[in-house]
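Deliverable D2.4 — example input (structure tokens):
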């Protein structure tokens, strides 16, 4: 996401974008607590630690010391703060549809009848039961794009293209004509602001920033600043931004997406994005389209589409072969920027310091 890559890396990027091809077990955990000051817990899971999303996880939890009796047992989930389970006995049942996918950590907090307590952690990999469908892009049309724009957010609203850019001393929000590239309105930010994703919700422009945890709200008509809020993410950073009917949806470069309140950027919930291999990280610019979120995967020529309710990836798109050598610029950086053309449903994609916006139509990959 962040900084302009060297010229040699740019050549590699262009070559990639121009020429790449379509492209019954019982597992027992019995570890003592560090320092040996608390009783050890034994966690036995029915089956392997890797499970498919939609499966039910069953585990038994008991103290290693047979003389100890568990009085209460509570499960919490560091990667899913809104979920907790109080177990009535040593058998724990977890629905993965509630837990979420990807690598999930579980904290077992036990209290014993003798007054002692113990905590244990366990990791479980929850994977998609099917791999995502593979797609390539057919270029339908090209539009001009300012090669000085370090693209962080891209969208179409009421017939105009809105773009948010990044880098210190280069951050701005623009309203332009897609076909001609003419700038109708622009707001430049202070030099200490590194802009990230933008979205338009209820006639306001929302913007994230890279490392400052500052979220800005602007008037759509004139880009005047209305409000500013602080947000928190796993990486402490802001990357991509979109929205559904009720919430802002943000990425932070990890495999998490966050549902944020439009009122104050407070977290309403989060999900991990995952596929049949596990966590899908590097999530960057976002676009919400027909119930799915499309996300650039940072430093790759790949876009993934996933269900925001579950985080499970359904489709994977390769931009390899999309960029002509003649369209390449010396400072050309990574693929970043997804919008939807409301006239025909095609995707609009571009990148940081790219000279073109590409209108593309997904076509099935020959390799799929």
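Example output (designed residues):
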């Amino acid at each position: 996401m962040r900084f302009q890559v060297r010229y040699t890396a740019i050549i590699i990027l262009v070559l990639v974008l121009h020429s790449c091809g379509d492209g019954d077990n019982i597992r027992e955990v019995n570890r003592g607590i560090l320092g040996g000051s608390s009783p050890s817990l034994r966690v036995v899971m029915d089956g392997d630690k890797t499970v498919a999303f939609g499966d039910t996880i069953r585990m038994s939890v008991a103290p290693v010391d047979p003389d100890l009796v568990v009085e209460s047992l509570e499960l919490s989930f560091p990667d899913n703060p809104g979920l907790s389970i109080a177990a009535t006995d040593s058998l724990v049942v977890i629905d993965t549809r509630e837990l979420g996918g990807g690598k999930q950590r579980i904290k077992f907090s036990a209290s014993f009848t003798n007054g002692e307590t113990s905590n244990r952690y366990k990791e479980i990999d929850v994977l998609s039961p099917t791999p995502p469908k593979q797609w390539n892009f057919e270029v339908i049309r090209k539009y001009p794009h300012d090669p000085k724009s370090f693209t962080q957010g891209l969208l179409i609203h009421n017939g105009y293209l809105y773009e948010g850019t990044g880098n210190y001393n280069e951050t701005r929000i623009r309203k332009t004509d897609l076909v001609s590239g003419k700038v109708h309105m622009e707001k430049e930010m202070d030099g200490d602001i590194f802009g990230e994703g933008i979205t338009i919700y209820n006639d306001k422009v929302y913007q994230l920033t890279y490392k400052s945890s500052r979220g800005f709200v602007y008037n759509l008509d004139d880009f005047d600043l209305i409000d500013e809020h602080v947000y928190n993410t796993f990486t402490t950073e802001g990357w991509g931004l979109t929205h559904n009917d009720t919430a802002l949806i943000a990425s932070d470069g990890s495999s998490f997406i966050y549902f944020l309140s439009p009122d104050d950027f407070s977290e309403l919930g989060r999900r991990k994005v995952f596929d049949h291999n596990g966590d899908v990280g590097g999530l960057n610019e976002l676009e919400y389209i027909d119930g799915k979120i499309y996300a650039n995967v940072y430093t790759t020529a790949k876009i993934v589409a996933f269900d925001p309710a579950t985080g499970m990836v359904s489709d994977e798109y390769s931009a390899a072969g999309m960029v002509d050598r003649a369209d390449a610029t010396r400072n050309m950086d990574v693929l970043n920027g997804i919008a939807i053309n409301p006239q025909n449903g095609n995707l609009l994609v571009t990148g940081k310091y790219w000279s073109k916006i590409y209108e593309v139509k997904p076509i099935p990959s020959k390799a799929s």
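The CA atoms of residues 45 and 59 lie 4 Å apart.
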